[in-house]
Amino acid sequence: MEEQKTENKEEMQQETTEEKNSSQGNSSTRSSLLWIFAGGYLVYTGYRLCANVISGAEDSSAGFLVAGGIFVVIGAVLLIMAVRNLAKAGAQKHDMEEAAAKKAAEEAAKDQENAAAGKKRMSIAERAHLAENLDDAPEEEAK
Prior knowledge:
Elements: H1 2-55, H2 62-116, H3 124-142
Helix pairs in contact: 1-2
């Protein structure tokens, strides 16, 4: 009986941990997508600034070329970091799914072993009657 309580507590803790990880996974994915958009925008803006300076547009100066180069570098770094974060999140999700499948298989095997051993699950009422019978048993032996 204590084993069942321990197993139930462990299951509840694992479910809570999985819920936290999944919510963190969603947040991580969202932030990575925002980083991708921001990085793409910076790369595009930097490219347009540099292209305007190189083509000789009227209001362009060497400062715009430097700013465009910095934008391109920062945008590229954001894109790379976002792609890496997405890859990590995907790998973690895959690992969690494998662990859940393995746990489910172990529980199924354990249930089959219990069924094969002839162990019967008792209802609450049956447990109450069992406890009543145990209370009466020592009195009968004493007589």
